[in-house]
Amino acid sequence: MTKKIAQLGFFLTFALILAYVESLIPFTVGIPGIKLGLPNLTVVFMLSADRRFKDGEAFGVNMMRIVLSGFLFGSLYSILYAFAGAVCSFLAMKAGRRCGRFSVIGISVLGGVFHNIGQLIVAIFVTQTVYLGYDLPFLIAAGTITGALLGLVVRELMPYYMRIEAKNR
């Protein structure tokens, strides 16, 4: 049990570090809300680690990361948007993994796309304008690209993690 708590603490810390690094990167493409999504590496990684982590553990780490990084590097609005995106993306990634037809890259793409969709829905409610829906194709493209890149990173790192995990048993 203490090993599991230490692993979850590691992933939360890693996600917070990635959130901080992402906050330092000046990434502007003209459409609000488009980010690299570096902290989502941890969720994709935890969901893809051969069932070593329960879905609730990955979800809990992500929710804690959102609250902590929101207070440290963002605002209450950033927490609201992040929660919406995280819930939508987590449900999509979980469904993609459960159906068994998606690779790690595919699951990550689902997460990236649905994260943007969740945030767009909240933005439409907050601003009370449906015209933000015009950004949807760009947000889907951005979620696909960043999701694919993050999925590639997870796919490349997974064998190293499995090797370390096997040595520590």
> Could you tell me the strand content as a percent range?
under 5%
The quaternary structure here is single chain
Taking all residues together, what is the mean pLDDT? 90
Which sheet architecture does the biggest sheet show? Answer: none
Evaluate the radius of gyration: 16 Å
Helix fraction, binned, reads over 70%
Q: Between the first and last Cα atoms, what is the distance in angstroms? A: 13 Å
Corresponding CATH architecture: Orthogonal Bundle
Report the uncertain regions. Answer: none
Overall morphology:
globular
Secondary structure blueprint with pairings:
Blueprint: H1 2-24, H2 40-48, H3 55-73, H4 76-99, H5 104-127, H6 136-167
What does this structure look like?
The protein has six helices and no strands. With 169 residues, the chain is mainly α. The chain has a single domain, classed as Arp2/3 complex 21 kDa subunit ARPC3, CATH 1.10.1760.20. α2 packs parallel to α4 and α5 packs across α6. The longest helix is centred in the C-terminal third of the chain and has 32 residues. It starts with a helix and ends with a helix. The relative contact order is 0.14. The mean pLDDT is 90.
